[in-house]
Amino acid sequence: MHREQQIHAWLSGVLDSGDFNLEPASGDASFRRYLRVTTEQASFIVMDAPPENEDTTPFCQVAKLLADAELNAPRVLETDPARGFLLLNDMGTIRYVDVLEKEDPDALYTDAIDALVQMQARIPAAAVPDYDAELLLSEMSLFPDWLLGRHLGMSLDSKSHDTLTKTFGHLCQEARSQNQIFVHRDYHARNLMVCPQQNPGILDFQDAVRGPITYDLASLLRDAYVAWSAERTQRWTAHYLDAAGDAGLVSDEGKARFSRDYDLMAAQRHLKVAGIFARLWHRDAKAQYLDHIPLTLRYLEEVCERQPTLEPLRQLLNSWDLRVRVQTKNDELRERCEESAAAFDGPLAP
């Protein structure tokens, strides 16, 4: 039976009726996709997570943790783990990223930061897997493997390879030395929903781990999809530190070193994200993520300028002129798509 037919048959049983409308809600950077189910009385969301690629168990487990912490996240109403189907309540259609030019970002981000502190303070870190050194290092390896090697066709000499290896080890050690708490791991404007009550709605939390306290704030304020001024992010960071301090998450000593910890954690994430965006094109034919690599690299360069321990990486990045290389490569791909009368975010074979 075709997967669409499987979903329809499953929903007919779950809803005790075949009288519903099914349409795409969204996809994401994984193998999951989401469908909106509309009946005369209500609407729901179906997560379609093919079991050969995705495991729905972590999503269900973390959803319960968020609910127990009184945070606004999708509730799991029905499950079919063998086939990878979940029925969730519908949190609407308005993401943070969709309204930032129309709504007051200060109000939205204050809500997001308050929810983040609540999440960090109330959810036991021991309930999720450890963000261990192996995972941190494997994430950073996406940068040379997929961005430098696969996307840009670069071959690293021994000195460059050694610089990256030492930098990755340093960033890993610094991340592991931070206060280890619950980490959402993808907390940004595309995964936060604007909700009339209990804003924001929190999505895409299935990869949560026990990890560095600065990680989620870096994900939110150094968003690969949205750039904010330094003045604004400093103000939001100050609000976070006040709230986290009141919640007992950050000591006075922690506040004194927070800026450095935050920068170094952000560097690890930028390396990972740049590699992931390249992989999404070359492995999954999702070209829309390529346009966000230059901003991610800009963030990384800025961190390297501020943090003396990243000076070797700064010199390496400057010698490669990566942002120009990436933009040139992206332009070449766009021209290929136009020549073949295909959209830039279409399924052009890498």
Lateral arrangement of strands in the main beta sheet: 1-2-3-5-4
> Under the CATH scheme, which architecture of the largest domain would be assigned?
Alpha-Beta Complex
Annotated CATH topology of the largest domain: Aminoglycoside 3'-phosphotransferase, Chain: A, domain 2
How many strands, what sense, and barrel or not for the largest sheet?
5 strands, antiparallel
Radius of gyration: 21 Å
User: What level of helicity do the residues show?
Assistant: 40-55%
Q: Measure the end-to-end span.
A: 30 Å
- The class by helix and strand makeup works out as alpha+beta
Work out the count of structural domains.
2
Order of helices and strands: HEEEHEEHHHHHEEEEHHHHHH
- The CATH superfamily title of the largest domain: Aminoglycoside phosphotransferase (APH), C-terminal lobe
The low-pLDDT segments are none
Q: What is the global morphology?
A: globular
Number of helices: 13
**SS strand fraction:** 5-15%
Q: How many beta-strand elements?
A: 9
CATH class of the largest domain: Alpha Beta
